[in-house]
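== Protein entry: sequence and backbone fold ==
=== Local backbone shapes as whole numbers ===
==== Amino acids and backbone structure tokens ====
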Amino acid sequence: MKIGFIGLGIMGESMCENIVRKHDDDVFCFDTVSARVEKLAGAGALPCKDNLELAHKSDVIISMVPKSEHSRAVYTQILGGLGPGKICIDMSTIDPGVSVEISRMVKETGAEFIDAPVVKSKPAAVAGKLGIYAGGEESAFKKIEFILRYMGENVIYLGKNGSGLIMKICHNALVSQIQNGVNETATLAAANGIDILTFAKAISYGGGQNFYLDSKKEVLSKNDFTTAFSVENMNKDTHICMSLAEQCGLEMPGQANATRVYEKAMEAGYGKEDFSATIKIVRAQKS
């Protein structure tokens, strides 16, 4: 089974490397940035000149791109290379409704489509320990589950096309609210002489312990916002959540507040920084 991987950014690069290392057949790759393709070629992937060439050569086509418009563009470009027996896996975090539209477009060629967004960030991608949420026909999922497990240690099937993305948006929305709670309470603690590392240790003794604080306490202490997952990507996800909630007629005031913090972080020019940089917005609000 030949695999093609489109999108070799912060996450995609390491995800593709894991496939190359673990898979016993050809792995093709493409990215609009040639240096990324060259790097993966050095790791053993076979470079393609464009997305369509990759689709023609691959039995399974995986995409990992930033936004809904990028996913739509990729699958529009590769339709001529799809057909019965091929399976597409979009691992991007995009609007669930757009993903369902793409799935219909792909299925019209006779190919199958799975949405399989990931959770956790760069270190987990490197280690092949991502969490992966899959949506689509269960029969198609079963055919490619072993490929997903090259990249993730926790893989869960959620149901029909779009279900994986809905779960991913719920996950990231919850993270953004937990994060904002950490930002506010850690800033309050600091205003009263309790540093972030002591704060995190004390929180770990009780019910407030959470993965976000445990994994980001050193980052927050050093103010080192080197990007593992960017503010702009989380900002995109929080807005998708608010749109989804509106479609469902659901009010989410806590999420609306977290989304406003992200909007301010974008306005402040923090978009390319790690999403933990939102603490700077909360600190700046201190009178």
User: Anything to note?
Assistant: The first strand starts at residue 3 and ends at 6. The mean pLDDT is 97.
